[in-house]
Amino acid sequence: MKRIIMLGCFSLTTIASIAQQKEEVKDSFHLLSPVEVRAVRAGENAPFTKTNISKKDIGKSNLGQDIPFLLNQTPSVVINSDAGNGIGYTGIRIRGTDATRINVTLNGIPYNDAESQGTFFVDLPDFSSSTGSIQIQRGVGTSSNGAGAFGGSINFSTNEVNKDAYVEFNNSFGSFNTWKNTVKAGTGLINGFTTDIRLSRIKSDGFIDRATSDLSSFHFTSAYIAKKSSVRVNVFSGKEKTYQAWYGISETDLNAGNRTVNYAGTERSGDPYDNETDNYTQKHYQLFFNHLIGGRLSFNTALFLTKGKGYYEQYKDDEEYLKYGMPNPLSAGIPIVSSDMVRQLWLDNDFYGNIFSLQYKSNKTQATLGGGFTQYEGLHYGKIVWAQKGLTAIKNWYDLDAVKTDFNIYLKEQTQFAPNWNWFCDLQYRHIKYNAEGFRDNPTLAVNNQFNFFNPKIGINFNKNGWKEYLSFSIANKEPNRDDFEAGTALQPKPERLYDVEAGISRSKNNYSWSATFYYMNYKDQLVLTGKVNDVGAYTRSNIPKSYRVGIELEGSIKLNPWINAAANIALSRNKVENFTEYIDDYDNGGQKTISYTSATIAFSPAVVSGATINFLPFKNTEFSLLSKYVSKQYLDNTENKSRALNSFFVQDIRTIYTLKKKWLKEASIIAQVNNIFSRKYEPNGYTYSYFAGGETITENYYFPMAGINFMMGINIRL
Q1: How many domains would you assign to the chain?
Q2: In what helix (H) or strand (E) does residue 55 lie, and over which residues does it extend?
Q3: For residues 282 and 238, is the Cβ–Cβ distance under 8 A?
């Protein structure tokens, strides 16, 4: 099968190359577009499910909330926030899959953490203010660099060119003492050179008690654009300090109305510890080179380095010295066995590499040969920085290295083989090597694993008179993450595999558009939480032989008249784990009890997700919008137990934008947004655990509540 697919791709590319005539480069402005992201984005006729978000749409809601909240109205997306107001640690799921299964690239460069595979947008404060466009691909999507996409891909582009000089001020304020201050400036295009810079600061107290955020960032980019070549340098950084709110609140507190309680720091008697914080700085360095080779070929390459360093600090009550590898100190000759302590868990990492693509384009054929090599070097270490008694100096706790290398190469080809018909083929080979010296709770467990994946994708597209239809089939493979490997020698995880079928139809006219997408995602060995305990007593994910997601996504937009338009989407899905075994701690008899399920709904996979936006333009330069979001019931684990679930919710926001343009003023706008206008009490995220005690099963649920009615207001000035 592999040989047939590869032969088909090669043949079509060869035939098309011979048939096409040489094209000429029109001018240097071909290089003004961010060509380095073309290789990882799905083109207009690519047979994949995608949503494109423009800079204008980004700006409408860019008032300080994190990136996931700017994507809330896109299909099959569910978002959450630890602090309850969208600032600080936030999360996103696409088609029920979490951020560890969503591939994120910044200008084509991988962003997912190499070990955890998660995406921490808190490390990119106000990144949206430097973003020119975003593409979300749902499902496997096209071959990209970095982590495998099992739910979707999010591709950010910042490398746009501003032809004219400008200075811009963006200031926002709102509920929970939230402030965002941004200043941007650019030289415009001068003799082929252009430079842009941004400085930002975001602060918020958060909806949850003590869930404060203190975020700062900068973004610098400079480029030289010649007739056939361009060079660009990007340097950007984010620094965050957030008070932890990751424990959620208990079901008891939720039912009692204590929606803002925060358990972080409460191990200290009396007042909570005031520095139970996460502290992290991430710096990005990107160097791009783009070159047009004749009229058909273009070559793009980039070198990058991402440096991250930081820690989170915790107050721990009555901890034993031996637990941290320290001898019991003596006081008047008497051993001190335990003490209250403050500990820091550090991560110091470097992520660097190269990506490249060679792109061929003619009237009927587009082909890309691309790939990349990356290496991650992570140093995990811990410190005891204070103890109530017995500690005389800072003590190191653990010191463990990890190295991960990732190489991939892919060939994509799209050819018009008949009028209005396009064939697409995408073949990727990926090699991963991961070495870890040990883990904090299992320091003697060394991991040395290698994975080789072949990820093919084929599809067909029809496009005529505003009608589009497509069908595609993809195979994706994904390696386990760092936590999965900590399961122990006897419980080492297997990689996951996904078979993805996508079929879509759409219709577009001047005043309306609609689309329907059907998908079937069949998983083999998907890693899910089962309650099973690993070698060190921690809960870890286990491979499930069979599971699937099947659904339909409907979208539509209409312009009723010059002053009113609307857009809406709804996703209906069925998400099941087959032959699932739950493990429950048995406190009465020791060990764990098991319960088997033949078919149960996958955790955090709502059957219905919908969004709608109605825009009114009653006056010149004025826009009123009503934004709605509905998410049906979600289960907290894979048992489909109604007592372990998140209730459905329906939330509405309103937004007003007034824009003014003058000769001396390029643009000024006032944006006011009121979120959750009916002050609904809802929780989009949570977790659960159960145990057997006293002859019965006891379940404890924890939730992450969102804020009631709240507002943000922004004033933007561009000179």
Answers
A1: 1
A2: helix 55-60
A3: yes
Radius of gyration of the chain (CA): 26
d(CA 343, CA 321): 12
Helix, strand or coil, per DSSP, at residue 18: helix
- DSSP string of 114-183, one letter each residue: TTT----GGGSTTGGGG--EEEEEESS-S--SSS--SSEEEEEE------S-EEEEEEEEETTTEEEEEE
pTM (predicted TM-score)? 0.92
| 122-144 burial code (b ≥16 CB/10 A, e <16) | bbbbbbbbbbbbbbbbbbbbbbb
Pairing state of beta strands 686-693 and 564-586? parallel
Q: What is the DSSP letter of 329?
A: P
Confidence tier at 30 by pLDDT (50, 70, 90): low
> Which residue reads 């860019």 in tokens?
62
From residue 32, give the alpha-carbon distance in Å to each of 27, 28, 132, 191.
Answer: 10, 7, 12, 13
* Mean of the per-residue pLDDT values of the chain: 91
Range of the domain at 328: 2-718
Which CATH number goes with the domain that contains 364?
Answer: 2.40.170.20
Compute the distance between CA of residue 524 and CA of residue 477 in angstroms, rounded to an integer. Answer: 10
Asked whether the predicted pLDDT for residue 3 surpasses 60, the reply is no
What's the CA gap between 67 and 57, in Å, rounded? 13
Q: What is the pLDDT of residues 412-446, one digit of tens each?
A: 999 999 999 999 999 999 999 999 999 988 888 99
Q: What is the mean pLDDT of residues 603-613?
A: 97
Measuring CA to CA, which residue among 514, 496, 494 is closest to residue 504? 514
Assess whether pLDDT exceeds 50 at residue 18. no
**H or E stretch at 11:** helix 2-19
pLDDT (mean) for 130-141: 93
Angstrom distances, CA of residue 44 to CA of 41, 47, 108, 113, 401: 10, 9, 18, 29, 43
